[in-house]
Amino acid sequence: MTRSFDIAVIGATGSVGESLVQLLEERILPVGSLHLLAGSESVGQSLAFRGKTLRVRPLESFDFGSVQLAFFAAGAAVTREYAERVSAAGCALIDLAAALPSSLAPRVVPEVNAQVLAGLAAPYRLTSPSAPAVAVALVLAALRPQLQVKHLTLTACMAVSSRGREGVSELARQTAELLNARPLEPRLFDRQIAFNLLAQVDTPDATGHGALERRLAGELKELLEAPSLAVSATCVQAPVFFGDSLSLSLLANAAVDLPAVCAALQAAPGIEYVEPGDYPTAVGDALGQDEVYVGRVRGGLDEPAELNLWIASDNARKGAALNAVQLAELLIKHYL
Amino acid sequence: MTRSFDIAVIGATGSVGESLVQLLEERILPVGSLHLLAGSESVGQSLAFRGKTLRVRPLESFDFGSVQLAFFAAGAAVTREYAERVSAAGCALIDLAAALPSSLAPRVVPEVNAQVLAGLAAPYRLTSPSAPAVAVALVLAALRPQLQVKHLTLTACMAVSSRGREGVSELARQTAELLNARPLEPRLFDRQIAFNLLAQVDTPDATGHGALERRLAGELKELLEAPSLAVSATCVQAPVFFGDSLSLSLLANAAVDLPAVCAALQAAPGIEYVEPGDYPTAVGDALGQDEVYVGRVRGGLDEPAELNLWIASDNARKGAALNAVQLAELLIKHYL
Q: Which residues form the Semialdehyde dehydrogenase NAD-binding domain (chains A, B) (predicted)?
């Protein structure tokens, strides 16, 4: 007999929430009842789940004692407001908004640091890291036996869907305006995103670093248990609807054994290795895929301890919803 | 009395050739007669210059003894075929295709290494470096008094116009096909470039590095007279019509003095420094501008010797035609 679990999805009508519901349907996770919750503006909407139509109900009045697991995909403020109530009800919490400090809700990618769960006690609280951190950590974890990374330089070219549906419709609208020679009106983004690259995805702090750039650096160190890793992160908004493209350059503490690196990437679960000559793209390869695609793997031109590679990944899939669902599977299998 | 110079432009009908002719018209360079030359397929076309219509004439039968200076913007094979004839006729040559080795035609950016010309003798031969190399070298040259760079990591997101007019029309066509839900037919690029990023701009060699990536690394070392500089370069094809966006991360051999770096960039000729908070983009700032735009200047999150910045520059302007014209001005002023 298989136990089934009652689950709540908060922020079910957002793009990540919708991907979550779709993955819960596709994957073997034994879902008993599924509750879709959102703020008052989305209550009354509905989503399909296993042949039924589920209505979105108000988060405010929900009894978290009636479910064993809750996914929070509604933004940091919502997670912060409800986290205590969820835990007090004995319900496990998986946050996709990085609302809580690591001490309260550690960042976990199952393939990278699943062992962290063994040190926790119920009620469980986990954070699913940002999409680029998940992809980069997966790759670096696969290479742990091959190289110890000292310094990591990442330029993350992020899809507009990282800003939700509004990002997608803004790129479509701006593109159509430009192609039809109509005046351009930026709304969600602060300037033209169509046929352009924006050098930041949020407002930098006084030191010039953006919130996501800081978050990424912190997440990578935590996931890889590498507090002394130095991270340089630049987050760029690209005129791409779906899928992140990451240009990654590493400095290891010794010369890189390239054939061993390629073999390790080829063998790693969750990674699709693309041979030199060919290369993966976000749109052509990663979209809709659970795997993170890695290509353009090459050493340094001048520096033997350098490793360069290119990662394409579906930011809504492994980057967000899939990793959260995998965390739920891990909790359910071993801890709940 | 001002001497005037008779000039030939080879590859005048390409997009760089056309920018060259436009700049020759705009700038004070004392042009006597201007000869537009091209292969047989373009002969008979014409361009406007100072109120006159100039016909494109055949390169094959041109007498280089009739001009003092020739710009080669027609591809490496053409430069290689004609270089000897040009020099034998006593004509100075400025190559935009990196056809000749540095020993025969050194790479020069006037603001960076103009002193190289003093070591040459007539007939002069110079190479105008690749667009990203010009932009990065300008920035690093401005910072020479502030920091000695050991390792440089560059992700260069390049406009489709770096592939000439065909690149521009391919992006426009693919975008329209996708927006109108018609089947996509990649032609010039090997796959979908619209709403996508391609991880390479040419075919990599057996070590995985692309020709432009190798060229960039070599050009930066030569321009900055820094043979021990380690360069990691990733050239990416972006769905942007005009203007390159460069994400640059440097490791210096000592802690970076950020206020001094910002002050140096603010004071440097040819550079437009953008304050933190704001940031430059290729389309919004750099297009049509002679200056290279630099923003998002920030130190390392973890590494005091790290410096990160973002460069937006018009790849057809300072990156190609303008630098070549400035080389001509330098030759004319001091050497011809």
A: 6-120
The CB density around residue B320, as the number of other CB atoms within 10 Å, is 26
Domains and their CATH numbers in chain A: 5-128+320-334 (3.40.50.720), 133-315 (3.30.360.10)
Q: B310: which chain A residues are within 8 Å (Cβ-Cβ)?
A: 199, 234
Question: Token pair of A184, please?
Answer: 């351009």
* Strand ranges of the sheet holding B230-237, from the earlier edge strand across to the other edge: B230-237, B149-158, B244-252, B306-313, B292-299, B271-273
Q: Does A283 touch chain B (CB under 8 A)?
A: yes
Tens-digit pLDDT profile for residues B163-175: 988 999 999 999 9
Q: Is B228 exposed, middle or buried (0-12, 13-18, 19+ CB in 10 A)?
A: exposed
A167 touches chain B (CB under 8 A): no
> Which pLDDT band holds residue A2 (cuts at 50, 70, 90)?
low
Give the gap in angstroms from C-alpha A77 to the nearest C-alpha of chain B: 24
Q: What percent of chain A has pLDDT over 90?
A: 84
Interchain contact, A249 vs B234, CB within 8 Å: yes
Residue closest to A137 by CA, chosen among A106, A112, A117, A158: A112
Q: pLDDT (tens digit, 9 = 90+) per residue, B212-248?
A: 999 999 999 999 999 999 999 999 999 999 999 999 9
User: How close is the nearest chain A Cα to the Cα of B243, in Å?
Assistant: 9
The reply to whether A169 touches chain B by the CB within 8 Å rule is no
- Reference B139, options B257, B29, B25, B247; nearest CA is B247
ipTM: 0.94
Structure confidence at residue B1 (pLDDT): 45
Q: What is the per-residue pLDDT across A210-246, written as a single tens digit (0 to 9) for each?
A: 999 999 999 999 999 999 999 999 999 999 999 999 9
Give B30's pLDDT tier (boundaries 50, 70, 90). Answer: confident
CA distance to partner chain A, nearest, from residue B297 (Å): 7
Instruction: Tell me whether A226 touches chain B (CB under 8 Å).
Output: no
Give which of B301, B311, B313 to mutate to test A binding, by max A Cβ within 10 Å: B301
**Contact (CB<8Å) B231/A200:** no
Q: How far is B13 from chain A (nearest CA, A)?
A: 25
CB contacts under 8 A, B 260-279 vs A, are 276-277, 279
